[in-house]
């Protein structure tokens, strides 16, 4: 009889746990979610991003993207009395300082400070990132040639220009230098672009100027979040479809809202997955508005050709 009662007690206890409302295990909806952030450095705005969510019983964790670098996990987020605090260890150099965010929540805006790796403190603010969900499939417009194969019409360099146009309609960055950005901005689109990457080099294509599709000499490697085909720091390709260095390769990329599909050399390697937020090196963190196509020229030599975009109507 005692054993029977014990079994009944255990069963009832498990049943009670199973039917507890989800709110009993939720985190804090006031702070949870994705936030588009801005760091002010010497009067100039630089983009960053943070995501905060619960893990287990009211424990808050997250991910953070700084001015540069990839998305990094935040092991512990403190949020009490509308005050936010979290820190991250150095990303680049061991002797750097921890990155520390302290901010206060007012409505849907965070305002506070960021202590950077250099030990200096800068103003930091963030607003809730837009969902960018679509309820209907896009209707596609007319394809636009972004690079005419003759000159840099329709593009501008962010700095001292090293880009040249070579015979055969090749857009070439012979050395590390300025990034190249379209004059026109786009919201949802299909992008076709061909590239040739020398051994050991690196570049990237930023969709709306915010989300980097990685280009790297990755032939023979296992897929990673920072290798060819990845949405840098966020989405890993399903397979490594790279060709050897110095061979022409092709991206066909579709972006609708946050949903991205990447086809590399004819193989679909990312299928309609959501991009969580901006990647390091983004032009801004204003995710709700159209943005340009920009290609990296500051990570080594790279070549491009046959760049065309089909915007949604």
From TrEMBL:
Span of domain 3-keto-alpha-glucoside-1,2-lyase/3-keto-2-hydroxy-glucal hydratase: 143-309
Entry's Gene Ontology molecular function annotations: hydrolase activity
Entry-linked InterPro entries: AL/BT2_dom
Signal sequence range: 1-26
Name this protein carries in UniProt: 3-keto-alpha-glucoside-1,2-lyase/3-keto-2-hydroxy-glucal hydratase domain-containing protein
Domain of life according to the entry: Bacteria
Lineage: Bacteria, Pseudomonadati, Bacteroidota, Chitinophagia, Chitinophagales
Keyword list, A-Z: Signal
The organism of origin for this protein: Flavihumibacter petaseus NBRC 106054
Any Pfam family matching the protein: 3keto-disac_hyd
């Amino acid at each position: 009889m005692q054993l029977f009662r014990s079994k009944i007690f255990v069963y009832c206890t498990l049943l009670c746990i199973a039917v507890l409302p989800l709110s009993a295990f939720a985190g804090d909806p006031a702070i949870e979610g994705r936030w588009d952030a801005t760091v002010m450095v010497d009067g100039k705005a630089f983009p960053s991003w943070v995501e905060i969510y619960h893990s287990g019983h009211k424990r808050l964790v997250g991910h953070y993207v700084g001015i540069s670098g990839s998305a990094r996990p935040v092991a512990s987020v403190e949020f009490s009395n509308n005050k936010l605090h979290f820190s991250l260890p150095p990303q680049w150099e061991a002797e750097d300082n921890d990155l520390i965010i302290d901010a206060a929540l007012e409505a849907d805006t965070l305002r506070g400070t960021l202590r950077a790796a250099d030990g200096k403190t800068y103003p930091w603010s963030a607003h809730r990132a837009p969902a960018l969900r679509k309820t209907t499939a896009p209707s596609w417009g007319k394809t636009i040639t972004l690079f005419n194969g003759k000159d840099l019409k329709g593009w501008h360099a962010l700095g001292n220009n090293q880009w040249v146009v070579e015979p055969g309609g090749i857009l070439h960055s012979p050395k590390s230098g300025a990034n190249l950005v379209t004059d026109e901005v786009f919201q949802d689109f299909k992008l076709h672009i061909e590239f040739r990457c020398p051994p050991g080099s690196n570049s990237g294509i930023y969709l709306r100027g915010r989300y980097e599709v990685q280009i790297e000499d990755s032939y023979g490697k296992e897929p990673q979040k920072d290798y060819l085909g990845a949405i840098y720091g966020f989405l890993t390709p399903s397979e490594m479809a790279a060709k050897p260095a110095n061979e022409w390769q092709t991206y066909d990329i579709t972006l609708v809202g946050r949903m991205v599909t990447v086809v590399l050399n004819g193989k679909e390697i990312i299928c309609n997955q959501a991009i969580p937020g901006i990647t390091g090196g983004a032009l801004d963190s204003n995710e709700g508005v159209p943005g340009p196509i920009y290609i990296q020229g500051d990570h080594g030599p790279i070549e491009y050709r046959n760049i065309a975009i089909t915007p949604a109507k």
